[in-house]
Amino acid sequence: MADQIWIGIILITALVLFVIERWRYDFVAMGALFAAYIVGLIPRQEVFSGFGNPAVITVAAVLVISHALWRSGVVDKMASSVKQMGDRVWLQMIVLTSLTTFVSAFISNTGAMAIMIPVALQLSRNGAGHASLMLMPMAFGSLLGGTITMIGTPPNIIISDIRASHGAEPFGIFDFTPVGLVVAVAGLITMWLTAHWLVPRSKSRDTSSSPYDVSAYLTELYLPEEASLVGHTLFEFESKIKENFAVVALKRGKQTISAPPRYLRLRAEDVLIVEADAATLQEILDLTKFELNAEEKIDTRFLVSDEIKVIEGIVGHDSRLIGRSAADLRLRHRFGVNVLAVAREGQPLRPSLSDVRFKPGDVLLLQGDAEVLNDVFNRFGCFPLAQRSLRLGKKRQLILPIAIFAGAITMSALDFLSVPVAFTLAAGLMVIADVIPIRELYQYIEWPIIVLLAATIPLGGALERSGAADTIANLALWVSQDAPGMMAIGLLLVVTMLLSNVINNAAAAVLMAPIGISMAGTLEASQDPFLMAVALGAALPFLTPIGHQSNILVMGPGGYRFADYWRLGLPLSIVMSVVALIMISVTWPMYG
């Protein structure tokens, strides 16, 4: 009994820390793992056993393959065809959500959304309709697509491995398809019929190319001969001003230099185009004796040139920007990149840009060299909203990556190779074939997810060994004792779905699977329908933006607020629960 109390305390504490997000989830999971070891719940030889677990290896391999397919432009070809659908918003939503769902069955949900969000925004900016109407259904569609195959989402891979660890064969690639495909189709139809009324509309991205009026903050400053900083470098000029501002261009005679380098020396009669609020502008004028040069309304043509671009990007769920401000980043000093604006929930944050602490889903407007911006987005965990402009000079291969990927699926489906071996081999072949450079092999693996899985898998074992899983299972069965047996599976499905809305879905699968297996053992029933319920519940967090990375990615571009998700998410969750329960009972009966 003491072991059950200890594991209960550790897991409840971890769940609370997951929800409040004071520390990142992989750090919390490792802390829970060490706590369980210290109190004797996990043997010494099993503390780090999760890092060698086949499920963890498979997830890492799938992430590498997903990036290789993203990099090759395979899915871009599919996405570009959406532009031929005309201006009917309803038809565009059907095509976008369907394509996102299909792609998400085979590559990571986040990767699918990174490809599809710019397509939706481009259609909206062309006057075709509301981006906000399409983005939330697309995010939910990416979650639905993950249920179709075993490699579609980490919970499915975890559940397959847990099945193997309990004396049965692991689930195959397409064992999830009969249930997942019907659930996905039902979810898509539900969204197509109800999104018009349930998805909140935001007009911030339908009237202009971005939610910021950058030109309202651009000012021309003329340098007379008596200006104190003539002959000094831009670095020296910028160092004198305490407030946050950006020199976005310099006009010298007939020449215009966008995002001028910091070593450039100022000359008399230069004109600087700066982005600053009124207070900062007054400080510049007082210190430098520059003069306002308000000839005409400045537009954004000065922001770009052949090399210099202005591109929006979303702050990802694991971005290194989270919790830091624009002043902290010093992107201008380190990379020659200007942070022009920040938008949150579709609204620009002004004027105290330097004090803004970035959050997941924020949209940044950055100016700089296109290749440097590519490096900045990769380095800091952001997703560009530009339409493929950041892949300059990268070789496209379409047939080879598809052939390698199809070969891995075929070999594992025919049971010639196990899933971990097949997909790890495919990831290696992608490198050998130069579909993905070897320097990028580990760059796009989501290491926090890998650490989270590796830490929670032993915790799931401890939950089972301590008897706590049996206790919780018996409690759940007692609650549903007078109901049909499938109601116990329904209860497990709903609880897992609710849990996945507040913690990482992979962790939800690891923690709920032992409870499902204990419920099956108590009822002397097959464990398969219970495992399927956990897999589906963990894969479909529709109620909150923090439930999944896909939900966070559309929050900023769609202009959604935290409370907007349940409007479509709640009815969709109800429909998905009913459809999933029916399909599980048909495909995976409890007995026989």
UniProtKB/TrEMBL annotation:
Keywords of this entry: Membrane, Repeat, Transmembrane, Transmembrane helix, Transport
Alphabetized PROSITE patterns for the sequence: RCK_C
Chief location bin: membrane
Pfam families documented for this protein: CitMHS, TrkA_C
A GO-annotated cellular component: plasma membrane
Source superkingdom: Bacteria
Protein name stated in the entry: SLC13 family permease
Record lineage: Bacteria, Pseudomonadati, Pseudomonadota, Gammaproteobacteria, Alteromonadales
